[in-house]
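Exercise 7. Given the encoded structure of a 116-residue chain, write a plausible sequence.
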């Protein structure tokens, strides 16, 4: 299973699930060894298909770092933290998440839009 790290140590992912707000953006940056990128993306596509079918899902985009970067970043929009938490906590999603290699590191964080 991928190692989950907090992007902001003061607000870990599971604490963010308790915040009732929406719409929200989940930005999840992954550090993936180059030789495992294709396998990672194949599994991620399976997860994405599952998430797209969940209540409250809005959209999803995957991005890759430029040059020789080992970073991939998923940006997903959800109607609410409750919807994301329900999908994330589902047994089917958790089974897929357990398939990620141990040497993948994930930095998920939930954001809400602000006007500037």
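Solution.
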């Amino acid at each position: 299973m991928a190692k989950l790290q907090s992007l902001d140590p003061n607000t870990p992912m599971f604490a963010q699930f308790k915040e009732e707000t929406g719409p929200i953006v989940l930005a999840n940056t992954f550090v993936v060894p180059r030789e495992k990128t294709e396998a990672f993306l194949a599994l991620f596509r399976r997860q994405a298909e599952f998430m797209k079918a969940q209540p409250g899902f809005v959209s999803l985009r995957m991005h890759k770092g430029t040059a020789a970067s080992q970073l991939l970043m998923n940006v997903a929009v959800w109607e609410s933290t409750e919807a994301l938490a329900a999908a994330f906590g589902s047994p089917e999603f958790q089974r897929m998440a357990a398939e990620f290699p141990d040497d993948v590191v994930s930095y998920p964080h939930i954001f809400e839009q602000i006007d500037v």
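Remark. The beta strands are 3-4, 24-31, 57-64, 71-78, 105-111. Students should compare their own answers with the one above.
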